[in-house]
Amino acid sequence: MPRSRIAGIGKYVPSNVVTNQDLMQYMDTTDEWIQERTGIKERRYAHRTEETTTTMAVEAAKIAIERAGTTADDIDFIVFATLSPDYYFPGCGVMLQRAMKMKEIGALDVRNQCSGFLYALSVADQFIKTGMYKNILVVGSEKHSFGLDLSTRGRNISVIFGDGAGAVVLQPTEKEDQGILSTHLHSDGESAEILAMYNPGTHANHWGTHNYADFDDAPIANMFMSHAMIDKAQNFPYMDGQTVFKKAIVKFPEVILESLTANGYQSSDINMLIPHQANLRIAQFVQQKLHLSDEQVYNNIQHFGNTTAASVPLALCEAWEKGKIKEGDLVCLAAFGSGFTWASALIRW
């Protein structure tokens, strides 16, 4: 059975840089407050009307496809990870297929938020291993900026997130010392609501923060989105940051060690760890827990913020472009996020 290898990788970030000082115009916060809690100095925001989750994915995909030495016509399947699609439906996979004028290939959308890219990579890996597809485009792309509460009320969440995209082309390899060694996926929905965006949704507020009295005078169909939700700012993401942090610093190291143990390695064998860029403090805790040096971990949240499904491929691409990942290196990817879901992938580059 062949392994999957990352044959090409690309990234795209908008040109619009938004610093912590810029956010101070809209909310009661400071550069020191943001950096102390998250490590973030700046992030990118997509153009309001000219850039979408799909258009950013297209730019990252073009680079990945070119670096793989192939063309858009050769891609035979798409796996697209995002929590911020262009439309509620259809998904971004078909939008990408259309934008790149590809053949009538399959396109799958993955909704696993911060773990989305690793879930997508794992799905694509299985298709390659079974021989069903030969050139799979795996994408993580996010346009968070259009849905953030840029006020003091929403600062705990809004200062964290940014926009961007990353993509890889997965191909089979017969080399025994190359490719994806294993992927590991987990979930626990017990605390799903502590990091969630409830509305718009079909839950009729069963899990949300709202009261049914908000809808006494409205037909049930209008519960999907109402004036009451907007008036009470109930259409923005919700996060219990401390609880998420406590869970992440447990599951992050666990899933990394799981991938290493499954392949007979130790943390000291890692050449490069690319963690999901959720919070620099989480990444630093994981680094210390696993006794990794600064040269073994790559972070870029300082400049791009948390780009959710895009963060792992974006950081992976930047590390590779800077020469920090070379052929033969043992690379570990790991993520934890909303759901909760968490995942890892161990790769011999």
Descriptors for this entry?
11 helices; four-stranded mixed sheet; Peroxisomal Thiolase, Chain A, domain 1; 349 residues; globular; 13 strands; alpha/beta
What is the CA-CA span between the terminal residues?
18 Å
Number of domains: 3
Count of extended strands: 13
Q: Provide the gyration radius in Å.
A: 20 Å
Q: Please state how the strands of the largest beta sheet are arranged side by side.
A: 1-7-6-4-5
Name the average pLDDT: 93
Category from helices, strands and their pairing: alpha/beta
Assign the CATH superfamily of the largest domain: Thiolase/Chalcone synthase
CATH-scheme architecture of the largest domain: 3-Layer(aba) Sandwich
What's the CATH first level of the largest domain?
A: Alpha Beta
Largest sheet: 5 strands, mixed
Number of helices: 11
In helices, the fraction of residues equals: 25-40%
The low-pLDDT segments are none
Binned strand content: 15-25%
- Note the overall shape: globular
CATH topology of the largest domain: Peroxisomal Thiolase, Chain A, domain 1
